[in-house]
Amino acid sequence: MRALPIAAAGAVGWALPALMPHFPPLCHALGVPRRLEPPRGTVAVTFDDGPHPEGTPAVLEVLDRAGARATFFMVGEQVERYPALAAEVAAAGHGIALHGYRHRNALRLTPSTFADDLDRGAEAVSGATGRPLDLYRPPYGIFSAAALALVRRRSLAPLLWSRWGRDWARRVTPQSIAAKATQDLGPGDVVLLHDADFYSAQGSWRRTAAALPAVLDAIVQRGLRPDAV
User: Fold this and answer.
1) Which is nearest to 137 in space by CA: 157, 111, 114, 110?
2) How many degrees, rounded to 5, is the angle at CA 142 between CA 211 and CA 140?
3) pTM of the model as a whole
């Protein structure tokens, strides 16, 4: 009978890091940042899931007009499809980070499968952009205990977010994205957006690109600077 409590405790330990996006104190306890430290008077604008043949150029155009930099957490399988676009993001001076090779929930992967995904993704992204990688964000923001340990073993720093626009959802508007992403915004916040719709509502990147000018304006109006991580 003692095996049941032990197994239950093991399962809880395995899945506990997955709660971090919804329980900020757990981020602190596990040493996974969701904000910039020190804040530096900036807000980090980040994009997940790309590169995307339409969404990424649309976002890059807005950032270029505003003179703003962002960080792109790229998916290896999409980088392999659009390597020139990944290189273009890097050449424009934006931050490059890893979002895995495939967009899969870490809780559903064995440690060996996750490690393979991590290594394959890093090879694809670094190879296309010519950049060494030091940041990782998991798909859905979900870590298992093993995944978090493996990321750190690869000398990658995990990063979640403190603000998001829920721009991946179907029933959102550019106005609602901008309002949610900038609500109570302050120095050091990390804003999560998406420049692709491969893993979300079809066409969601259009609403993100339309919301981005208002997001950047709101950051500047608060006396802050939109920047890469």
Assistant:
1) 157
2) 30
3) 0.93
